[in-house]
Amino acid sequence: GKVTDLQIVVTNPAEIKNIGKKIADILPDTRVITKPQILKTYQVIFGWRGGVASMLLLVSLAAFIILAWDKASGLSPEERREIAILKILGFETADILFVKCWESIVIAGVSFLTGCSFAYLHVFYLETSLMRPMMVGWSVLQTHLEIVPTVGPGDVLLLLCFSVIPYMAATVIPAWRCSIVPPDAAIR
User: Fold this and answer.
1) What is the Cα–Cα distance from 126 to 48, expressed in whole angstroms?
2) From 27's CA, which of 42, 69, 89, 188 has a CA 20 to 30 Å away?
3) Is the pLDDT of residue 139 over 60?
4) Contact at 8 Å (CB) between 115 and 33?
5) Do the Cβ atoms of 147 and 61 come closer than 8 Å?
């Protein structure tokens, strides 16, 4: 005599509201949800969630751009002094650029691998525990969300190109500009 969910198929779509109203009148403690209501609710919710996800993406992109701009705008006085001392000790511009290039490759590479590893673990092993409430939402009609790992070499290459290469450029170009300045001018 008791049910939690009940689905009724109505052959005449014009009668859906009437039948839903009759069910609600007979069983006042029930909540009647029609298919158009479900579709509209999910459309509104996923649109809102898409906006939140877009805002999170824009904030992280802005943070990356600020970091790259800060790196590219110039070196700190200590880094300039370090490059000047290397030039005084006999290092060539090519040597300094080689060291700076490898330094940025190591820093960006370790950061890239760490970030990708944590993202992979979060999505595929922890089942998006931080993002799941936003993705699934408050709806009573929750479906099981199973994410299948599909990460290809193209995906990794795209992430690499958008994160590591700009960081390397933002590091090596200011080092090059500083290394072509005479050492005595850089120390002052």
Assistant:
1) 24
2) 42
3) no
4) no
5) no
